[in-house]
Amino acid sequence: MADKPAIVLVHGFWGGAAHWAKVIVELRRRGYESLYAVENPLTGLADDAARTQKMVRQIPGPVLLVGHSYGGAVITEAGDLPNVEGLVYVAAFAPDAGESPGQITEQLPPAAPAAIAPDSDGYLWIAQDKFHDSFCQDLSDDEALVMAVTQKAPLGSAFGDAVTAPAWKAKPTWYQVSTEDRMINPDNERRMAERMGPRRIVELPTGHASLASQPGAIADLIDAAVADLGYV
User: What residues does the AB hydrolase-1 domain cover (predicted)?
Assistant: First the structure.
């Protein structure tokens, strides 16, 4: 029986690698020994995909890429490396070729776009007093406060960066829909998931930050992906 693959976790906008904290703890508890969380610059899709690929190339064995939010666009762009065996999307963008997260968002706007505003340097921020209600309404006040204050703003131009060759057309996929998502329209998540033809689609009654509010369920989906790939 084969060992488990390495799990590489890719964060999205307004967060960093630490957004995966609860999932990391849960995966280690379940016996995953090879865990990585990329810290992407959020300066553009090419930059973020390159940073993710650098990490993946340092891993000698098979890899399962897991992306949250914009991190889904990153794994879509970065996931064509030969040791990447599958892609797990967590309330995430999964653009097609020539498509950007911004284009997808315009097609079916989410509930909370008014909470986002650029600063004078072109970085996009979620207003701190709107972060809880917009990004993570099912977390505690204290958890939301920490996320709001430590948020990692992306360059606004990154929203318009289009995917070139989507890895989901060649790799097995799994998708988690957040039915109460206010940052990505849940119907957009369903549409992106269905067109990929994933092995599994899981719907959770949670907001955008499902990686923090539902870490057990996200770990369950990763377990399912690992099992579907034939690992113990």
Answer: 7-220
